[in-house]
Amino acid sequence: MSSPKTSEKVEQKASFNPPGADVLGDDALFTPREAAGVLRKTTRTLERWRSDGKGPRVVFIGRTPAYRLADLRRFIRDSALRPVADSQGE
Length: 90
Description:
Blueprint: H1 4-14, H2 21-24, E1 29-30, H3 32-39, H4 43-52, E2 59-61, E3 64-68, H5 69-79
Antiparallel strand pairs: 1-3, 2-3
């Protein structure tokens, strides 16, 4: 049986909304660690994507990278595989 504190951490980790998302909506900001958790990638992957000009759009607050909720959602949506049309036209 997990303690309330442990289950609280798991619930918070699985959440798609960072603190303040209820007020900021799609402008809510995720840290690289939070964004990596949402995307199921490592923070190193996000760093590499940033340097390669790939991945979700990133904003900088000073020198600190952050990811807007709307940009993460867009990246996930745009990354979804679409069915390939049947070459025989069926």
